[in-house]
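thoughts on these tokens:
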Amino acid sequence: MPQPEISYFCVMEESNRQKKISGVLQKDLALLLQELLRNNGQTGILISVSKVLTTVDLSLAKVYVSVFPSEKANTMVSELNLLKPKIKHQIAQLTKNQLRKMPDLAFYNDDSLEYIDQIEKAAKGEDNPIKNPELLDKRKKS
């Protein structure tokens, strides 16, 4: 019989240490990602770090980013995942006095704003999901 997969993110409530590290990473990543966008000359794109979740052993950090415009979100997340070593090094330099070991980073698209926008349109009656249930896509788990 196959063993069930254990998730290190949802087993129990986050400890204070996890919350502190997530907060430090979120603040520093937000500043770094905005700077990377400015330095690469990509105008018209807004990126924000909406949430950072760290594992219990503090070895991995899931970074959820919101990208505006949402059409560029998937390409931006894939580029961030390609630049992970560089980003990890720069964040490690910023947090060297606060963290002993820098967790590995994994970037994910946070599409919650887009999902909320679809719900608001449906509630206003612009697109009625009762008449056409295919208007609201199922949320993707990441």
Observations:
- The chain has two domains: 16-110, 112-142.
- The mean pLDDT is 81.
- The domain at 16-110 is CATH 3.30.300.20 (GMP Synthetase; Chain A, domain 3).
- Residues 41 and 127 are 37 Å apart (CA to CA).
